[in-house]
Amino acid sequence: MSAAESVIIALDVDAREKALEMVRKLSPGVSWFKVGMELFSAVGPEIVREIAATGAKVFVDLKFHDIPNTVAGAGAAITRLGAAMFNVHCSGGREMMRQTLERSREAALKDGLELPRIIGVTVLTSMSQEVLKGEIGVGRDMTEQVKALALLAREAGLDGVVASPREIEVIRAECGPDFLIVTPGVRPSWSARDDQHRVMTPAEAYRLGATHLVVGRPITGAPDPREAWNKIVAEMEEKA
Ligand code: C5P
Fold it and tell me: Is 63 one of the catalytic residues?
């Protein structure tokens, strides 16, 4: 996959027009846009169809976590919207992931759509080792937990996981060369860190084996988003 095709732009806005304006500014060129909880909750599912209709791929980042039947139904609905990727929490368990894949596949076949890539969330990067053990009661160390959940996702038939830059290498070693690794929390050296800690540059994360990089404010908040996107892609190509 080329550097340009690996970058997913996070549309973290609360209005349809703001989202579509950013899509227009970055099209053609940008392959992927991410619709997260804020945009989806504010303007509704139709935004996914609207962005997909421009020819871009849409990653619906709603991190589903519920009983298998409910998540599978949500996955099928997201598939029918024409999403190219969506995610679920691995901690929902193997059966939840398996049923989601199955129902999404049926929905895609029935409507003649492509099956979206289904990605697992292992441990949220906002979670510390102390919270994982002390509050949630997970006995395993963070890295062991991330590895175990990534393997469970692979066994259940998912395409990959969301991972912080620091987890890329261990997941790549554990889950093989074809597993997708979608990495947020990246910052070019020339951009503000905002609220992201322990960042890595997109070029470094790409070189370590991330297949997709989620980038928001360094591009959407730049005075010229297209120029910022070009610069990031050029840096990734240089280091590849
Ligand atoms: O603007 P920024 O580049 O920080 O946006 C990153 C995007 O990735 C946001 O949509 C955020 O919700 C998401 N994300 C993240 N860190 C995670 C998981 C998701 O920043 N661990």
Answer: yes
Our measurement of the distance from residue 98's CA atom to the centroid of its chain's CA atoms, rounded to an integer in Å, reads 19
Q: At 4, which helix (H) or strand (E)?
A: helix 3-6
**Catalytic pick from 18, 25, 57, 63?**
63
Is the distance from the beta carbon of residue 7 to the nearest atom of ligand 1 less than 6 Å? Answer: no
Closest ligand 1 atom to 162 CA: 18
For residue range 37-68, what is the model confidence (pLDDT) as tens digits? 999 999 999 999 999 999 999 999 999 999 99
Domain extents in the chain: 3-239
For residue 239, pLDDT over 80 is answered with: no
| pLDDT band at residue 7 under the 50/70/90 scheme | very high
- Which CATH code for domain 3-239? 3.20.20.70
Kindly state if the Cβ of 122 falls inside 6 Å of ligand 1: no
**Residues whose CB falls within 8 Å of the CB of residue 121, separated by 6 or more in sequence, listed in order:** 63, 87, 88, 89, 90, 161, 162
